[in-house]
Amino acid sequence: MSLEAFTDESLLTLVARGDEEALRVLFRRYAGSVLSLARRMGLDAATREDCVQEVFGRIWKGAGSFDPKRTSARSWLLAVAHHQAVDLVRRQAARPQAVEPDAEHEDEAFDVAGPSLDEGGALDRVRIQKALTALSQEERRVIEVLYYQGYAHGEAAERLGIPLGTLKTRTRRALEKLREVLGDA
Amino acid sequence: MTLEEARDLLPLYALDALLPEEARGLEPALRAYPELQAELLALQSTAAELVASLPTEPIPQGLEAKVMASLPSRTEESQPKVLPLPTQVSTRPPSPLRWLAPAIAAAALVVLAWTGSLAWGWIQALGNPSSKIVTLVNDQGGVVGRALVRPDRRTLLVVNLPPPAGGKVYQAWGLGAGQPIPLNTFTRQIAVLELPPQATALAVSEEPAGGSRTPTQIRGLPQN
Question: What is the ipTM of this complex?
Answer without folding.
Answer: 0.81
